[in-house]
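ESCALATION

Customer reports they have been waiting on this structure for their group meeting. Please prioritize. Original submission:
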Amino acid sequence: MVLFILGLIVFFGIHHTRQLVSGVRDNAIARFGLQGWKGIYALLSFAGIALMVIGWMQWRVDAPDVYIQPDWGHYVTELLVLIAFVLLSASSTPTGYIKQWVVHPMLIGIILWSVGHLFANGDLASVLLWGVFALSSIWHIIAAEMRHDPHPRSKGWQGDVGAVAIGVIFYFVFGYWLHGLLFGVSPF
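Update from on-call: job pushed to the front of the queue and completed.
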């Protein structure tokens, strides 16, 4: 459990530096340059994820159940995670209508991915993991809206087709191959 909590602190600490401690990001960019800051950010993010996953896998064996997931929960998980993969793909491609309709596709995708996993996992370790991801994403949406970040404008539907195709391909590759390899459980 200690590794899990440490991973949460490292991962979400670096992701919330802008909201938690004013000036840390700007000072780090001034000192190390933008690429240096991105390197530090990526390294700490990766370390946090590794600690979370290792800690979650160890703790989950003994973690008490918070609730019993419904028999149909895995169907909801599959649907929400599929939509999440499409939104995550759309967040980094030059899409038009998806980004216009779903203003924060990466964050909404993470919320759907997290909530989906709550339908398939009812142990305390999983509830904390997926719950923190969902709450963090909601926090980021609120912060972006409070900063009045500009909303994207549509550039046509062509990029949306690519985003959907890429998201679906990654969904099946991850679901059929990587998920079982990394976590020992095949979602299908």
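Sent to customer with the following note: The chain has two domains: 1-62, 63-188.
Escalation resolved.
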